[in-house]
């Protein structure tokens, strides 16, 4: 529900992954645009429970409410889906208060896409990180360029001081693919690593010489 930038991207990605998607938006121009991209696009009011029942939403396993600026419509859409019986509801929130309301009316998963992207970009800007995914409040997995001091060394020979508290779990191989890290793996120069650890540890590792 909601085919703005975020909702449209999610819907298109799900289709590319091979899933059947019913996309719903209240705007005729938006529906017309996405009907050229998605297989099932319907113009409907997400706050009208009768219309949603008529579309058979109760038969879907998961629903994503991607409505951003209209908080009332967002909350009513989640409430309608919960009352219809959709077992898994994901909803986009703009504030902490909005998130609390969404959870109280039936959303099992609340997303803050703008905040998550802002956090990710901040980490990328101030380090040699190539990608960064945060899990919870204090854990992350990151893709980072190889620190010069580790190039040519075996992973099994690295110390905690060398790694600044992170664990190397993947190495950019000679065939341009990432492979699982093993003690005998030699870290190639000018390559990249996948590491995991606390956010602070990942950040320290990403700026190490």
Strand content: 15-25%
- Main beta-sheet annotation: 5 strands, antiparallel
Taking the alpha carbons of the first and last residues, their distance comes to 47 Å
Strands, count:
10
The largest sheet has its strands arranged as: 6-7-10-8-9
Number of helices: 8
State Rg: 22 Å
The CATH topology of the largest domain: Rossmann fold
Backbone shape: elongated
Q: Provide the residue-averaged pLDDT.
A: 87
The CATH class of the largest domain turns out to be Alpha Beta
Q: What level of helicity do the residues show?
A: 25-40%
Short description:
By secondary structure, the protein is α/β, with parallel strands linked by helices. It has helices spanning 5-16, 28-34, 49-54, 71-84, 96-104, 113-125, 160-163, 199-206, and strands at 22-25, 40-43, 62-65, 88-92, 109-111, 129-135, 139-145, 167-172, 178-180, 192-197.
Comma- or semicolon-separated keywords:
ion channel; Rossmann fold; three-stranded parallel β-sheet; NAD(P)-bd_dom_sf; alpha/beta; single chain; 209 residues; 2 domains; ion transport; elongated; Potassium channel family protein; Alpha-Beta Plaits; five-stranded antiparallel β-sheet
